[in-house]
Amino acid sequence: MGEDVLKQHELINHRYAIHRDKLTFARYDSFSASASQVEAVAMLIKTGRFLGFLPQHYAAPLVAQGTLRALRPDLISFNTPFNLILRHNTVRSPLVKAFAQALGVDLKAGV
Asked: Each residue of 15-55: pLDDT tens digit?
């Protein structure tokens, strides 16, 4: 599937992630649906009416099950940076420690 075919489909706009690069393969007016949650984006994609982006960690099991498939990952992919901001020299809860570890942040490293 080439870029010209992708431009013919309706896409889901993510309210939580702004990717200006989407317009290189999608028309601005093709975003006829929008969602704020990954689960809602997945639900819209599963209707078969829309194309959209899902985080790799969320989409991988669905792709493995055959529920979804990646369209041209060689052509289109996005990286969304995340920042973790914490107070300096404070006790970290186990939840904060687990979250930081999942993001690959070493809480013991100096700034």
From this structure: 665 555 555 555 544 556 778 788 999 999 999 888 888 88
φ, ψ (nearest 5 deg) of residue 46: -65, -20
In three-state secondary structure terms, 80 is coil
Q: How many residues does the chain have?
A: 111
* CA distance linking residue 88 with residue 50, whole number of Å: 44
pTM: 0.64
DSSP string for 5-43: HHTTSEEEEETT---GGGGGTS-GGGEEEEESSHHHHHH
Which of 75, 46, 49 shows the shortest CA–CA distance to 58? 46
The identity of residue 19, as a single letter, is H
